[in-house]
Amino acid sequence: QVQLVESGGGLVQAGDSLRLSCAASGRTFSRDTMGWFRQAPGKEREFVAVISWSGGTTYLADSVKGRFTISRDNTKNTMYLQMNSLKPEDTAVYYCARSKTWGWRANEYDYWGQGTQVTVSS
């Protein structure tokens, strides 16, 4: 089994930055694809970003492209999401997850963290 723990969320103002971390433990594999998703109250979970096992390939949702950066450090079993120029519409619970495949659909991810709250005020 795999355990994922997110951290780094908080309350910030529009235009500020945050860096989220996702620490993995348990039965983890460096070849696994890792992704970030977010979910606002009353809305479905949406894709944010994904990164390949090596970290060499990334893909971000259009809504965050140019503002967010996804990265990972396999030596530390940690994935990051650098969020710049935050907007109120970025407010959500952010989840990290892992997949044995490559994709941007939540159903393709089998392990999830508990989430970390990001709130952006205007």
Structure at a glance:
The protein is mainly β and 122 residues long.
Write the layout of secondary structure elements.
Layout: E1 2-7, E2 10-13, E3 18-26, E4 33-39, E5 46-51, E6 58-60, E7 68-73, E8 78-83, E9 92-99, E10 111-112, E11 116-121
Parallel strand pairs: 2-11
Antiparallel strand pairs: 1-3, 3-8, 4-5, 4-9, 5-6, 7-8, 9-10, 9-11
Structure write-up:
With 122 residues, this protein is mostly beta strands. It has strands at 2-7, 10-13, 18-26, 33-39, 46-51, 58-60, 68-73, 78-83, 92-99, 111-112, 116-121. Strands 2, 4, 5, 6, 9, 10 and 11 form a seven-stranded mixed beta sheet that branches. It is globular and about 40 Å long. The mean pLDDT is 94.
Name the beta content range. Answer: over 45%
Topology order in helix (H) and strand (E) letters? EEEEEEEEEEE
Terminal-residue CA separation? 40 Å
Mean pLDDT: 94
Helical fraction: under 10%
- Quickly count the helices: 0
Overall outline: globular
Largest sheet: 7 strands, mixed
Rounded to an integer, what's the Rg over CA atoms?
13 Å
**Unreliable sequence segments:** none
Structural class: mainly beta
Number of strands: 11
